[in-house]
Amino acid sequence: MQTYWPLFWPNSSKVDHSAPQVRLDALLPVVGTVTLAYFERHERIQIDETVRLIWCPSVSDLNGWSEQPSEIAFSHVLQARVVALDAAPESTINAAHFGLRGHMLEVLSLERLLPALRGWANGTGAWSLPQAAAGDGSLQLWAELNWCGRAEVAGYIYLVGNTRAESHLELILERDGDNLVGLFHVQRNPAGTFFDFGATYSTELERCLLERVLNSAQPLCDTHPLCLLE
Predict the structure, then answer these.
(1) What is the superkingdom listed in this entry's lineage (predicted)?
(2) Which helix (H) or strand (E) holds 25?
């Protein structure tokens, strides 16, 4: 099953974003209903395809977790079946959808991201931190950052960074004694978006690298007041 992180999820016109607080369940897709999401132009998702999707609340949906790390705790993962394409919009940058075509999605399941990651911890496939080819072999992308931020959310560590080679990296991990356990990793670059899920213990080299990144990372905090109600 392919994983995608939609560019944005339009909210219902019934949601009042001028209100000081908004209920989370007013924003969330509902299992058994059809919802709409917009994707990158290069992501060729087919009708009747079942996909895994990352859903974020309003601020991080527009600006990313790095702008509102507290919303990681309210983010969800869902499975959905693509049932139709939305009518082709007028291709203009002034349109709210920026000329993108939406996908109509039948929501099959929905769960919070962080508990889901922990649930995938038992025996899920191992993965490694991403590498890139270099003249004399390979290099770790997390060692090539020109900016990095970190936050702690609900007992987890969130790391985000950018490289000079146009890679954007995000990692959710936790500590287990002296070990670092990666639970979620996403890498975005001009070639696409690549995900890794499931608890994986870092190798000693990876652990040392991540500790250096953690020590040098800029602390992140919310850029907007927390407005979500359970």
Answers:
(1) Bacteria
(2) helix 24-27
CA–CA–CA angle 59, 65, 67 (5° rounding): 65
pLDDT, tens digit, 9 for 90 and up, residues 159-195: 999 998 889 999 999 999 999 999 999 999 988 899 9
Report whether 183 contacts 174 (CB < 8 A).
yes
Contacts for 169 with CB less than 8 Å, ≥ 6 apart: 130, 141, 142, 145, 159, 160, 161, 162, 163, 185, 186, 187, 188
Report the alpha-carbon distance of residue 3 to residue 51 in Å, rounded. 6
Pairing of strands 131-134, 50-55: unpaired
Dihedral over Cα of 199, 37, 42, 95: its sign: negative
Question: CB neighbours (10 Å) of residue 41?
Answer: 11
Phi, psi at 214, each rounded to 5°? -60, -40
The Cα 178–Cα 159 span in angstroms is 18
Tokens (6 digits) for 47? 């009708």
Contact between 203 and 127 under an 8 Å Cβ cutoff? The reply is no
Q: Which two tokens stand for residue 194?
A: 């690549």
On whether the CB atoms of residues 85 and 46 are closer than 8 A, the answer is no
CB burial of 29-40 (b: ≥16 within 10 Å; e: otherwise) equals beeeeebbbbbe
Residue 216 one-letter amino acid: S
pTM score, whole prediction? 0.88
Number of H helices, E strands in the chain: 4, 15
